[in-house]
Specification:
Radius of gyration: 38 Å
CATH topology of the largest domain: Rossmann fold
Largest sheet: 7 strands, mixed
CATH architecture of the largest domain: 3-Layer(aba) Sandwich
Shape: elongated
CATH class of the largest domain: Alpha Beta
Structural class: alpha+beta
Strand order of the largest sheet: 2-3-1-24-25-26-30
């Protein structure tokens, strides 16, 4: 449709006014460089093969820990920190390693948690979802990422195992028939049923024994009791039995001191009609009654913390109550017991309160969210994943089935309320509806078995091989998924050829993306602890010689000496992260098409000295070899003294400012061109696109990025064959500005009587 056709009035059948809008402003071009760097390395903690955006040094510490006093590991960490000091954003990926393993805990034995010897490498959240959510992993809890950092952490767990601890004076509870899994009762007489009632009733309260402690010397034995239900009785008539919630100091919902506690066998309970008494001979008097939860402590070795200080007793979550479920709530706390991780013994790292054993559980608190413990920990915990369901195995407290499977009334009707604990239908991971979940009580799981990267060499360096490093950098390959402006090499590998291969890997990614640059430093052994500057020069030139010729690579000569405040010592680290940081500074202070070198914008942060400070003659050799010298200039400091790219032949693209000018323009206009997809290739679309491009380029020109430009987008380059092939073409010609690399100052002595005009231009 032509412009005249497009602007024709809409046909009308009767007089009227039609209002139309035609948008000729769709799309625009903006400077899209976001100053995002990317680095991969063997960090102490953090997810493996997953990129995390880091903005500050503290963010780096939180996500990946602090630098270790090991060769190359600290180089990675301090390279990342160096880049961040210039103000950019950094995408950090932790590389994989053959020996990496997550610290984890096994299933409890006899109610005691044990460290696991099972192998558990969980790289990241996606890996957990893909490989560990639907299998019996062999571990109950695992650290959220690999390494030794979590060895020694303790996972403290508690649920609604018992309500009361009842003291009974005996040296042998078995003589009274009291053992784990059996039921107990106590008779009451004349006790008010509840608030607001005046009637008094006889009756008894029921419970199940969940724990036994026999003192064979002093005779001060105890039983842990889970309160189950209350049975009303008026005279000789047995009334209804109701499930009750335990309430401390409430006689209608608890056992009390002085009452007679009777064991109940699997046949149920017999009543002695007429007396209201329970007809059992094995009787123990409750000498003392204590609240079970109030006595529970976290299973720590170096401090004493009561659970009641952490949170109130876990009760059934509302979600389960609404669906006739019971006993789903639990607390999980992570503690640095020995202080290895935090430096403070007994530090509580996280509290996970009232999460659920029910697989469908949802909480409406704050916002609707899943509180099934596996899902909750995976989504919210900073330290833990959950694996093997500890109640899937035979219950160590109650055996495979409780020995007391229920009570019966005088009519022989089985009470359902006594099946609260340990039944086959009550294992974890089921829907809440009608489910009474197993309880484990108070269990502490020590984490162990975490393994770092292979430790080799005199300094015990974290060994990350070239394949693992390359795999981590592959995370940054797809420019449609990940925005990156600088691929930061950090340190090289153990061998020079591997360092060269790493450099070529980064350059190949940059060339494939065509929207970023790779910054490369020499192999450490080329310059650090090499006493001869001649040898250093030759080493650096030899190192860079086989590295790909590319305008997407930027090579430097430096290793800077800086202070590691975490390990209280000075370090040599590569300067490639600083070169990337100088480009960030340039973007902040000027524009991408300005050179990042020199005294204006090229001074490195936190550089005390250099491992290699080339002379003028040596700088000449380096520059011819595509290497940008980093020098220590008296009165100025350590600075980048070159702005070449790694291109091996003369071209406008052999300068950093030109390469970055084109990256900026190409990226901006590529995104603008997206708006033209699926439009018609006609004069309107071409005019619209030209009206987007030209103002953007005029702005770049006004900001000293271009000498001149021209945009051709018309029928001359959009020929009928181009149009018929569903293509659209725009040719954009740019004359970039050039940075000054060489300054000549000619000082001319003249005779006294000679006019300057006579000699000007002759020298």
């Amino acid at each position: 449709m032509s412009i005249s056709e497009k602007n024709m009035a809409t046909p009308q059948l009767s007089p009227g006014v039609v209002v139309r809008e035609v948008d000729l402003t769709v799309g625009r071009a903006d400077n899209v460089l976001a100053n995002i760097g990317a680095i991969a390395g063997p960090f102490q903690i953090g997810p493996v093969e997953e990129a995390i955006d880091i903005s500050t040094e503290q963010d780096l510490i939180n996500a990946y820990g602090k630098p270790l006093s090991t060769d190359r590991q600290y180089e990675y960490w301090m390279s990342a920190a160096s880049y961040l000091s210039y103000g950019g954003i950094l995408k950090v990926a932790r590389v994989d390693g053959a020996t990496l393993n997550n610290a984890n805990a096994g299933a409890p034995i006899g109610g005691v948690g044990i460290a696991s010897t099972n192998s558990a490498k969980i790289k990241n959240f996606d890996d957990y979802n893909a490989n560990y959510t639907d299998i019996q992993s062999g571990w109950t809890y695992a650290a959220k990422n690999p390494g030794t950092w979590a060895n020694g952490l303790k996972v403290c767990f508690i649920d609604d195992m018992a309500d009361q601890i009842i003291g009974i004076t005996t040296t042998n509870l078995n003589d009274l028939g009291f053992s784990i899994g059996l039921g107990v009762t106590a008779a009451y007489s004349g006790t008010e049923v509840g608030v607001g009632t005046t009637a008094t009733t006889n009756g008894y309260i029921k419970g199940i024994i969940t724990g036994v402690s026999t003192d064979t010397v002093a005779g001060n034995s105890t039983i842990d009791v889970k309160v189950v239900s209350r049975v009303k009785q008026t005279g000789n008539v047995i009334g209804t039995e109701t499930y009750i919630d335990y309430s401390e100091f409430d006689a209608t919902a608890s056992f009390t001191s002085g009452v007679k506690i009777r064991a109940v066998n699997t046949a149920g309970i017999n009543t002695d009609n007429g007396s209201g008494r329970l007809g059992f001979s094995n009787v123990g008097v409750a000498q003392s009654v204590k609240d079970w939860y109030n006595q529970q402590t976290l299973g720590l070795e170096n401090s004493t913390v009561f659970w009641k200080q952490v949170a109130s007793k876990p009760v059934t979550n509302q979600f389960s109550l609404d669906r006739s479920g019971q006993n789903d709530a639990m607390h999980i706390v992570v503690v640095d017991d020995d202080g290895t991780l935090t430096g403070v013994q007994g530090s509580i790292l996280e509290k996970n309160i009232s999460i659920s054993k029910a697989s469908d559980a949802i909480s409406a608190v704050a916002s609707p969210r899943r509180i099934f413990y596996k899902d909750f920990l995976a989504l919210n915990s900073e330290n833990l994943y959950a694996g093997f369901n500890p109640s899937s195995a035979p219950d160590n407290f109650f055996e495979t089935e409780p020995r007391a499977t229920g009570f019966t009334t005088t009519s022989g009707v089985k009470s359902s309320s006594f099946t609260a604990i340990g039944v086959a239908g009550g294992i974890w991971g089921q829907d809440a509806a009608g489910t009474i979940f197993n309880a484990l009580g108070n269990v502490t799981y020590p984490l162990g078995g975490g393994v770092n990267y292979a430790a080799t060499g005199a300094n015990g360096q974290f060994k990350a091989n070239l394949g693992d490093i390359s795999a981590a950098y592959d995370l940054f390959e797809n420019k449609d998924e990940t925005d990156v402006n600088y691929l930061i090499m950090g340190p090289g590998c153990a061998a020079q050829d591997e360092s060269q291969a790493k450099a070529n890997k980064l350059i190949s990614i940059a060339e494939e993306r065509k929207d970023c640059v790779a910054v490369i430093s020499p192999h450490r052994d080329n310059v650090v602890d090499v006493t001869s500057t001649t040898d250093q020069t030759n080493n650096v030139i030899e190192y860079y010689s086989p590295i790909s010729s590319s305008s997407y690579g930027i090579f430097d000569s430096g290793y800077k000496y800086t202070f590691d405040r975490f390990n209280n010592q000075f370090r040599y680290i590569p300067t490639n992260a600083d070169v990337a940081g100088l480009m960030v500074r340039t973007d902040i202070e000027q524009y991408p098409w300005f050179s990042p070198a020199g005294q204006q914008r090229g001074i490195l942060n936190n550089a005390i000295k250099l491992a290699y400070n080339p002379t003028k003659a040596q700088r000449d050799l380096l520059y011819e070899a595509r290497v940008n010298p980093i020098i220590n200039q008296p009165g100025t400091g350590v600075l980048l003294f070159g702005d070449k790219t790694g291109l091996g032949f003369a071209s406008a693209f052999d300068r950093i400012n030109v390469r970055r000018l084109f990256l900026t323009v190409e990226k901006a206009l590529e995104r603008s061109a997206q708006a033209q997809l699926f439009e018609f290739n006609d004069e309107i679309t071409r005019a619209n696109f030209t009206n987007i491009v030209e103002p953007f380029l005029r702005d770049v020109q006004a900001k000293r990025g271009l000498v001149d430009f021209r945009v051709i987008c018309d029928e001359t380059n959009n020929t009928p064959s181009i149009v018929d092939n569903n293509e659209f073409r725009a040719d954009i010609f740019l004359k970039p500005t050039k940075s000054i690399n060489f300054v000549t100052l000619s000082f001319v002595a003249t005779r006294t009587g000679v006019s300057f005009e006579e000699v000007a231009g002759r020298v």
